[in-house]
Specification:
This protein has 160 residues and is of the alpha+beta class. It has four helices and nine strands, in the order ββββββαββαβαα.
Amino acid sequence: VSVATGRFAAPDGTTFQRDVVHHPGAVGVVPLTDDGDVVLVRQYRAVLDTWLLEIPAGLRDVDGVSTEQTAARELGEEVGLRADTYALLCRFHNSPGCTDEEVVVYLATGLEVTASDAQGVEEEHLDVIRLPLADALAQVHEGAITDAKTVIGLLLAAAR
């Protein structure tokens, strides 16, 4: 991740300056069990100084690794699951006015428990939460789940 100041031209030719956060992107994955539960993580987010309920996710920080492979890696690291199928739910830009970050979200089905492969300090401080998709959606509508990739992923998974 880096921050740079750039000069840009609007469609009418007017030029302006912006600070841009260059970001490698991220992947999120909605793990959906055969009986309709989702597997989420509750983790501390230092920037917000609070705990958030989120889908498993991670940075696209390894060259030559596809977004689907990154989703599989994060599913294993964060919640100790492997999936038979990854279906692309969406690609979106969090805040295109200041960053080039793209987030890719998958739906993971055909889940199988594996050994967790937690490798970082963030993975050491998270709780795995399994709950019915309907309950997770209720938390979205109540404003209890606020993480963008999680809100988007859960709503799109429910629409399938």
